[in-house]
Amino acid sequence: MTTDDETGSATERTRSSIDHDEGRARDREAGASDTAAEAIRDIEQRPLGDRAPGYQALADRLRVELEQSDPHAAR
Description:
By secondary structure, the protein is mainly alpha-helical. It has helices spanning 4-44, 51-69. It comes from Agromyces humatus.
């Protein structure tokens, strides 16, 4: 038989684990956003006529990353 203290402790560990996982996901998202923002800044420094290939490469890379991270994607 478990006590309320044991159940509360287990619930707290689970909540802590979920919070930690959510924090790591936010860090990855922020890192991805920072990387994309940096790539855009780099592209924007190029002459106007040279930007399209850079944007296309970025879009392709982001599409691949999104497809790989989508938990609902068919594999």
